[in-house]
Structures
1.
Amino acid sequence: MQTPNNIHPKIAISACLLGQPVRFDGGHKRNRFITDELSNVLDFVPICPEIESGMGVPRPTIHLRRIDGEIRLTSSNDRKIDFTDNMLKTVRKRASELQGKISGFIVQKKSPSCGMERVTLSNAEGNTVDHKGTGLFTQHFMQLCPLVPVEEDGRLNDPVLRENFLERVYALDRWYQLNENNVTEFINFHAQHKLMLMARGKSGYASLGRIVAGVTKHNLHERRESYIAQFMNTLAQRVLRKHHYNVMQHMMGYFKQSLNNDDKKELLDVMQSYKHSQVPLITPLMLLKHYLRKHPDIYLAQQHYLKPYPDALALRAQV
């Protein structure tokens, strides 16, 4: 099984977050976690929807307006200067180019073109209506490429959201590597993600299992399409400590005949400490990996739950 240390998924990213001077005033929004850490494990495809839609640098500011029930992207100073149609052409072009080739997208927060949520929305006169909008480019990109995990740079400051995003990026990249005509690879993909799915609860885990259980070479493509859509939706669910604890209890069951009473007590105590927020997730997982090395199990060794992304990111030391 290929480890995430050996692969670099390709993701799209708002160019300003890489430090490129593409903002309206010629500035940037460089994010050091992205440029200093994620750049070591991911390959970036920079995108600036505004420049690609024909706007220059510097340029007037833009915002979203609700005009006659429709969301339009216009100049902040003059609603007659409308960039909506050019932006929609740009997103359709980019989505077509990147479909099936990128495993994630990091966008710049609150941007009227890129923001994923909490973007200011105005009325026709330019007065603020609310802050519940989505950037025009990102909104349509998510519709055109629904499998691709999208996250804002600001939300990456949340350790749980950051870990969830990287889990999904690497999982989708693994999916892209499958031979779409190979039934066995499809079945193995599901088998190797079972613990990751289990951490999201019983419903998605069981439903996805039923899709795989009935797969044949004749219905493979239909099942694959249904599977991956539900798989990515399931992985998007936030995993709580009690869910991780349940998965680790399940894993512990594989060692019940191998561990002595002291080892079992130590492992259970560490898992309980995690459940009660006294230690990070990495602590009980390291102990479980230790016992897995001493008492090998093929099923557990193949689980991406134990290594969903490169160790260098050290994300589970913070959740």
Note: The chain has a mean pLDDT of 96.
2.
Amino acid sequence: MASPPELNPGADAPLVPTRGLRTPMQDATAALLADRWAVAGLLIVLVYLVLAVGVWTGLWATGWSEIGATRWGEPSREAWFGTNLIGQDIFQRAVASSRTAFEVGVIVALASTVLGAVLGGLAGYFAGTWVDALVLWLKGTLDAIPFYLLVAAIAFALKGNPWAMHIAMTATFWTTTGRLVRGEVLRLKNREFVEAARSIGLPDRIILSRHILPNTLPVLLVQATLTFVAAIKSEVILSFLGLGIRDGVSWGLMIAESTQDVLAGHYMNFIAASGFLFVLVMGFNLFADGLQDALDPRRGASR
């Protein structure tokens, strides 16, 4: 019996491979995992994340605020890094500060990325209109003010508000994301798939939110990681100046407290806080560099 026609294609029928095809995201993931420095950075970040989650859930560093009887105690089995001026465990305070770092970093990175994506997307899609002019004017005004001066001014003006530092950093960090997204939207808004969406009568808000902004995801991912690092460093500086964390613990507060310790010849408070900060920032920078290279569309073309 002859085989059915659909099961016996002709010799001229093209062969379509079903294996070995990968999506751009799969290519990016493979490139990221092939970068050993990026993987090392990711592992460092995951270790800090585990520390932060442990603090959140009360698994460790629960006694970071307890005042002991021994001040400026030497490193021991009970206090690995010794104690500070009022007898608090330096190691527990350094570990507990990782929770503060992730809280500030995640909140500011998400808020800045979303705000920058929305404003940058509107500016790019409505380029040449009053919307674009307004966003560019706001961005230019904020960029004209020295960064830390602006953040300190906003944080001081909102003094007493527990979200003052987050608002201050979000108000300044969105501008870079907005500029990058605006450029991407300008490049994408005249592409064929956008023209097709317009031709079937989709409103601008649907075209922008469903067809254009999702294609800026690689830019947003990289920028979010960079903003995370910038937010942590800014929190440390603001806390050191007395404009940041007040009712908790952070590496910035520990460095501020260590000024008296250093004068008395005790350096563990400073070493612990700056060491924890350095390793986390270095890990995130390595991961962000690898992520940027993996998501670079020119990477595949250069092979």
Note: The first helix runs from residue 24 to 34.
